[in-house]
Amino acid sequence: MRLIRAIDKLALENRRRHFRVDSVLSVGWREVTAAEIDAIRTDYLAVREFSGEQLQQEQAILQGLHRVEQHYPDLGELLMRLNSKIDALRGEVEAMRQRHQRHNDIANRGHHSVNLSASGMALLLQQPLERDSQLLLQLELPAIGLPLQVVAKVIYSLWQPEESLWRTGMEFEYLFDDDQQLIQHHVMQVQQQQLAQRAQHKPPLA
């Protein structure tokens, strides 16, 4: 029991590092198998590792070319070949990333009022979800045209008698950096809208 409480406290502290807002989103989800989790984890780690290595390599290439291009003007052709190779690698990584971006098999679709942050979300559901179960979530943010997909773990599912619904909290586990930035951008937009609304309704100073 102490270990569970310690894990819960750590998860709560991690969620508190991110701003949270209430927002209405289109949300879908389904349970994922252990094999699917392994495939998603492999792709996720590969993309993260490649992104870091790619950035370092691009910087090194540009610095090296800048130093020698004055003496070797024909390096323009080499630069084109290097850029083509980088583009091809980017295509492979994007294909890897899209491998688990399958939207047609997502069930339980609907619009929900969610408490959202870049690390997780909470929402009210008609049925409870098992704690520690892993889900493939699909989130549709108003600012973008394509849904985001992320693996999330259920951290609690508590009965709310006043609403006759289950308040369920989920923690994001595998979320690409650019997708996380999109969520952070959405959170900031909602915060700015809320601040503007409060300013409009604030009574004038005497």
What do these coordinates show?
This protein has 206 residues and is of the alpha+beta class. Helices cover 48% and strands 26% of the residues. Strands 1-2-3-6-5-4 form a six-stranded antiparallel beta barrel. The longest helix has 35 residues, at 34-68. The radius of gyration is 22 Å and the shape is flat.
Task: Break the fold down into its secondary structure elements and pairings.
Blueprint: H1 2-16, E1 21-31, H2 34-68, H3 75-98, E2 110-116, E3 120-125, E4 134-140, E5 148-160, E6 165-174, H4 177-201
Antiparallel strand pairs: 1-2, 1-4, 2-3, 3-6, 4-5, 5-6
Helix pairs in contact: 2-3
Short characterization:
Helix 2 (34-68) runs antiparallel to helix 3. The chain has helices at 2-16, 34-68, 75-98, 177-201; strands at residues 21-31, 110-116, 120-125, 134-140, 148-160, 165-174. The protein has four helices and six strands; from the N terminus they run H-E-H-H-E-E-E-E-E-H.
